[in-house]
Design goal:
The chain is α+β, with helices and mostly antiparallel strands and 482 residues long. It is built from 14 helices and 15 strands. The protein has helices at residues 8-14, 86-89, 107-117, 126-146, 170-185, 198-220, 226-233, 272-285, 287-309, 318-337, 343-355, 394-413, 451-456, 459-467; strands at residues 21-32, 42-58, 65-70, 75-80, 154-160, 236-240, 249-253, 259-265, 358-363, 370-375, 417-423, 429-431, 435-436, 447-448, 479-480. Strands 1, 2, 3, 4, 5, 6, 7, 12 and 15 form a nine-stranded mixed beta sheet that branches. A four-stranded antiparallel beta sheet has the order 9-10-8-11. The protein has a two-stranded antiparallel sheet with strand order 13-14. Helix 5 (170-185) packs across helix 7. It is globular and about 65 Å long. The termini are far apart.
């Protein structure tokens, strides 16, 4: 008896789907130069090891939907691909190619996606709905700009270990992940791989960075471009904006070392606009003194940059770390004099200073938010000789670890959150396919990261355990543009 031939629909349903893959991008902190940068001075921003992770799961060809899932903020929305405003986005006068530079949003394109954004999270209170709709707007604008009407149906699932609204670049990290994933899906990214030439790697990073900036335009309206640049490139950047009618000058600091950092989030609400206004008012009342303070902050930033870029800079040198640490302390003192610290930030500084484990400053606008501490060396190293050749007693190690633990207890009691992170790490990375060896000795395979496992990961520690790029020991499956 003759076998029945499969229908076209059957063949479409049985077509193999592209493997799931992941992209990841870091958050950031301002290391030096807060507030002075508003007045045309330089600032340094660097990547931190708190990251956003995006899992892209392809659906069968019979599906014609895209879904954005961001459980950390409660967002879950699906669009029908064929209903999206492709005619507007693909019009010759509007269509942008993947290698184009887009420095502003097209009002007609923004208007075209509004009907598809307005119904996102309608049942939620206005503040949360606005966050959801801003995220959806960034995603949809990038999707329609980079994809096509015959795009593969997918679920885009985001998880993040970066505190939201703490001035740590969480939205830029998300925008970088979305841009990298969409560019990868249209096959216009080369690598990353370990022997990729530097100039080729930089082209890929900048391609991602440019489109991530478009995402930031959707979310913030007038972003500086610094956060997405750090999230794309990693390490650190020196940036300066002397003319607000033009983009800032952003210079990568490729020699910026990976340094141990204690990040403490006060969880106290802050307003960048309010803190900037405080400095402006102080500058109006005391112009000469305030200008000297801003100039001193600029000198601190320049000193740090010159040290790191110097030929004999050694990040393992205690003298160099003490130099950077002292600059942390000086920068913080200047910010205090500008009136942008807060009792909650000063509590962190006092507690850390008393413990003697490192050098502390506020990061970002101040008035709340976060403080960062550059940790002294050997706080969590095994007993050995220290950097000057002196023996390190195991009791000293235990005391330092106990100190960090006791600090965390104090901060938790005060309602803060503490993170031990790495400063100056990798930028955007790719895990393709989404398979990791998580505690298995099987050299032939690994654990496939599906959406359910990803969603079930509990908190930041669960996410890092399941898919993290690795803090102490990097996971080789993750690849980064260097």
């Amino acid at each position: 008896m003759a076998r029945e031939r499969p229908s076209k629909l059957d063949r479409r349903l049985s077509s193999p789907m592209a493997p799931s893959f992941m992209v990841s991008a870091p958050g950031k902190v301002i290391v030096f130069g807060e507030h002075a940068v508003v007045y045309g001075k330089a600032a340094i921003a660097a990547a931190i090891s708190l990251r956003t992770y995006l899992l892209v799961t392809s659906l069968s060809k019979s599906k014609r939907t895209i879904t954005l899932v961001f459980p950390d903020i409660g967002l879950d929305h699906t669009w029908i691909i064929d209903d999206l405003p492709w005619d507007t986005f693909s019009h010759p006068s509007k269509k942008r190619r993947y290698f184009d530079s887009v420095i502003s949003l097209d009002p007609e394109l923004v208007q075209a996606i509004q009907p598809h954004i307005e119904n996102v999270s309608l049942d939620l209170p206005e503040p949360q709905r606005k966050i959801h709709q801003n995220s959806a707007s960034a995603f949809l604008y990038l999707f329609l700009s980079l994809s096509s009407p015959d795009a593969t149906a997918c679920i885009y699932t985001l998880r993040s270990t970066i505190p939201i609204g703490a001035g740590l670049g969480s939205s830029a990290s998300v925008s970088v992940c979305i841009a990298a994933a969409l560019l990868r899906q249209i096959h216009v990214l080369a690598g990353p791989h370990h022997d990729q030439p530097l100039d080729e790697s930089e082209i890929q990073q900048e391609r991602i960075n440019k489109w991530a900036f478009v995402g930031e335009l959707c979310i913030h309206g007038n972003p500086s471009g610094v956060d997405n640049t750090v999230a794309s490139r990693g390490k650190a950047v020196l940036f300066k904006r002397e003319d607000y009618s033009r983009p800032p000058t952003v210079k990568p600091i490729r020699k910026f070392p990976e340094l141990p950092l204690l990040l403490v989030d006060t969880r106290h609400p802050k307003s960048t606009a309010v803190e900037v206004a405080k400095v402006a008012e102080r500058r109006n009342k005391f112009p000469a003194i305030t200008e000297q303070t801003l100039q001193s902050i600029d000198e601190v930033t320049k000193s740090a940059h010159q040290l790191i870029e110097s030929q004999d800079f050694d990040p393992t040198s205690i003298a160099n770390l003490e130099h950077l640490g002292t600059l942390f302390t000086m920068n913080h003192g200047h910010l205090v004099s500008l009136g942008v610290s807060h009792p909650k930030l000063e509590y962190i500084r006092e507690v850390v200073d008393y413990s003697g484990i490192g050098w502390t400053k506020l990061t970002g606008a101040g008035g709340g938010g976060c403080a960062i501490t550059l940790l002294k060396p050997n706080l969590d190293s095994p007993p050995s000789e220290d950097l000057d050749g002196r023996s390190t007693d195991s009791s000293d190690l235990a005391a330092s670890l106990n100190t960090i633990d006791s600090l965390e207890s104090k901060f938790i009691e005060a309602g803060y959150e503490q993170y031990k992170v790495t400063l100056g790490g990798d930028g955007v990375g790719v895990l393709y396919p989404a398979v990791l060896k998580n505690g298995t000795d099987d050299d032939m395979g690994g654990e496939e990261i599906d959406q359910q496992k990803f969603l079930n990961a509990e908190g930041s520690e669960g996410i890092e355990r399941l898919v993290g790029v690795g803090l102490q020991e990097k996971r080789d499956a993750w690849k980064f543009w260097k």
